[in-house]
Each structure stands twice: as structure tokens, then as C-alpha cells.
Amino acid sequence: MDVRAQLSMVFHLDKCIGCHTCSLACNNLWTSREGTEYMWWNNVETKPGTGYPTLWEDQGKYQGGWMLKGNSLTPRVGRRLGLLTNIFYNPYLPSLDDYYEPWTYQYQHLFNAPLGEDQPTAKPLSQITGRYLDIEAGPNWDDDLSGSSVYARNDVNLAELTPLERESLFRLEQMVFFYIPRICNHCLNPACLAVCPSGAIYKRGEDGIVLVSQEKCRGWRFCVSGCPYKKTYYNWKTGKAEKCILCYPRLETGQAPACFHTCVGRIRYLGVILYDAERIEATAKVPDNDLVAAQLGLILDPGDAAVVAAARRNGIGDDWIAAAQRSPVYKFVKEWGLALPLHAEFRTLPMLFYVPPLLPVIASMRDGSYDLAEAEFFGRVESARVPLKYMARLFSAGNTETIKRVIRKLLAVRVYQRAKAVGDIAEERVAAMMAEADCTAEQAEQIARLTSVPRFDDRFAIPPYHREETIEQIEQLMRHKGHVGFDFNLPLERGL
Q: What are the DSSP calls for 128-151, one per residue?
């Protein structure tokens, strides 16, 4: 058992209001430079919808992630050696049109235009060419289904639905959508790292954050194709690849990442999980139907004595183990089984998990009011407006039983809390739903508390990094008698 520590995340989609405050916080902090105009390390998408860049989930178009052939796991876009022979031509690279050509407006024309009969306008100008631009797309072009006839109907996750099920999603009286915020998943099996010919991408040993070395990057952009989530971007000004760094400078000082800190809906949770690195390859080779369960099986119980002992042998400190034991991510993902990875079938083993939304039900009217006998206040799992097959395609690699189990527990917690607060649901009905969802009253209370009224420390269990100790140890080595530079024969202190 090779125990490693990973900073992991949970996004609770029932709480996301689609305000994009997280996107703006990230943009202001990290991507406000020239060359990063179309980079959205954090973006919020509407589902159904094609997302950003357009149709990023269609790996037939982009060839991202991994594919399983027999017992062999290979990157879809190709292995490094093969990529080197084709390094100047990559047909699977997203074009600028798949993102959007960033623009600004000719604001000075509003002040400097000569006197005329018409009000002057601020025409859009390309931030890349400086020429006038006819805007045809943007980062949130299908926000709130505003472009549903062109964008949302092309959502690749709708492919398995019947024509009637697809069309019902866009009928005005039954229309429904929800939001999915997306950042880099900091995967355990990152395809971007596997396909980088220059070896510029690496995964930090202390916290699992995936980064791009700006010194080693040669701008070949195979990482952009290799990432199935399209969360690696090319900076046209510097000629380097860039991506979400999970605000590690903030984490190292005990602060939550910018998008987490500013989230209006308080949907974001961050904490440490412990996992078994020896089983990564075997897990990534599991068939789609069992892939989510296998990935969750990688996550180890931080309260298990054998796991704790193995973690200490690998140099994981007691403070990090303690942070893993109080991690909200572990509770949502393993203890309660409510959070699932997005598109696990890409086989990158993402470390960002989502609590699926409880979708509106299809209720009926009787005598001018809702027929509660049919809707049962919050409805049945099977009567959600968005078919389970669609939700399973997103969050459980197509396994409808997995998504049904999660939504059933979310529904049971909501019914339990309503019965407790209002008292208008029969105890027998509550007990039946709780038993069906395998949820106890104590667990329902814990889930409701962490969902609705958590404190800051409940949502962000950030362990201390002790970077100052590492720096001090390096300085001590450098001051070693007669020592200039690094000497690998010198004894290293624990933790360096």
C-alpha cells in the first residue's frame, strides 16, 4: 500500500446559482495578462449545453483522456514518441473558434466621434488582431440556455436519450437546467502529463497539484489535446501552456483558493484525502460500469490504523493525517457516498467531485393545485425532468444505478428535514425513504449541516505546509562546511 496525500474538492451543484463570481475572482488574480484573454481556468457552464470550449466532452473530436484496448491503457491522442513524429501537426487541437476570439470595445469612439445624426457606438474590437469583430460566440454563450437551439441541443450527453426525451428538455413548460462550475481536476492519472513531449507537466508530491513548468514548456500544446476537460490553455503571447494551479500560493499560507473563497453559493469544499497510489493503473483499467466505484475505492480511510502507519512511512505528517480525518471531501465522497467525478470514463481519475443536483419533478395539477400524491412534495427519483441516463452520462460513466443511489439519498435527507421542520410528511413515508436510501437520522443531520450551515473551517480543512521549515533545511545544507551547491551524499532531513 503506497499511501499518498491529495488535495481534493467537492462542488455541491444544488447550491450553485450561476453567478460566475468564481470565474471573475480567478480571472482577476491569474489571467488578466496579455495572452490569457480567452483563458478561463474557472468557468461555469449550463447543462444541458456544449460547454467551453465548445463540445469539450466530445473526445471523438478532441481525442482527450485515455482509452482502454484490452488490458492496455493509452492516451487517445497518442504516446509521446508518436507525438514527436507529428509534432508540427495536431488535428485534434481546439481552434480559437472553439473557444472565442476575445474582444474589447472601441470606447474612445463614444467620446471622440464627430457630431452626427446618430448616437455613436462602441464597436467590438479583437484583442488579438485589433480589427473590428462580428461576435459569434463567447465563454458563456449558452448560459441559462440562451443559445439552446444552437448549443444545448448539441450536448453530447443527450445522445443516449430518445428523441422525445431530448425534446422534452426544451419545452417551455418543462424546461430545466443546472450549472456546473469547472476547474482543473488535478487528476491522479493526468493525460496532459502523459502526453507532454517536453516533460513540463508534473504532479506535486506533497499535495497532488498538477502544474506546468514555464521553463520546460515548449508550447507544443499536446497537453491541450490530452486533457479531456480542456483545462490546459495556450498563451499566444508567451508561447507557453498554462492552467489552474489551485491557488497553491494561497494554500501554502492557509487560505482557500480564490474561487473557493469568493463563491456566493458556498458550494465548494476542499480537503485532504489519502489514496493508494499502487492501484492507480489497475483502477484506470476497470470497465466503465464499475469505474466510479473503483475510483472511490482508491480513497483510503484516514482513521484506519494501518493506513495511518503507511502514511507516516511515506513521510506524510500527523497534521496532514489529522486534516484528512476532518476533511469534508472524505465525508461527501466516501462516508456519505454523495459526490461523484465528472466523466469518469475519461480515465484520468479526477480529484474534483460533484454532488448532483436534485432536479425539479414532473408534477401534475388537480383542482388548481399540485397533486402531492403524485409529486410527493419533492418527487420521485424516476420523475425528475432530466432523465437519469443524462445524469449518469455526466457523473457515473453511464451507470444509472450509481446516480440513482446518490439522488435517492439526497431526496431522503430533504424529506427528513422537511418532516422535522414542518411536520407535514407522514413518519412512515420518511422512514421508508430513509431505509431505501440507507441513510440514518444522524447521517441526515450531518449532511444537512455541512450542506446548509457550515462554518469556514468545516468547508476548508487546509493543512499547514511548513514551507518555512523546508527552506530552512535547504539553507542549512547550503551552509554545510565546504559545501557549494547540492551534494546528494549529504543526509537529508525528514520532509525535505
A: TT-SB------TTTTGGGTTTTTT
C-alpha cell at 75: 492516451
Higher-scoring residue by pLDDT: 444, 81: 444
DSSP state of 216: T
Query: Helix 427-436 to helix 400-421 angle, to the nearest 10 degrees?
Result: 150
Compute the distance between CA of residue 88 and CA of residue 43 in angstroms, rounded to an integer. Answer: 30
* pLDDT tens, residue by residue, 473-491: 667 777 764 444 444 343 4
Mapped onto helix, strand or coil, the DSSP state of residue 163 is helix
What pLDDT sits at residue 74?
Answer: 93
Q: Which of 299, 300, 294, 296 is nearest to 282 (CA)?
A: 294
Omega into 91 within 30° of 0, i.e. cis? no
Helix (H, G, I), strand (E, B) or coil at 470: helix
By the 8 A CB rule, do 258 and 270 touch?
no
Q: Which fold has domain 265-459?
A: Alpha-Beta Plaits (3.30.70)
Q: How many CB atoms lie within 10 A of CB 475?
A: 9
* Domain ranges within the chain, ordered by starting residue: 265-459
Whether the per-residue pLDDT at 434 is higher than 80: the answer is yes
Please tell me the distance from the alpha carbon of residue 229 to that of residue 164, in angstroms, as a whole number: 29
Report d(CA 17, CA 38) in Å as an integer.
23
Q: What DSSP designation does 15 have?
A: G
C-alpha 182 chain-centroid distance: 4
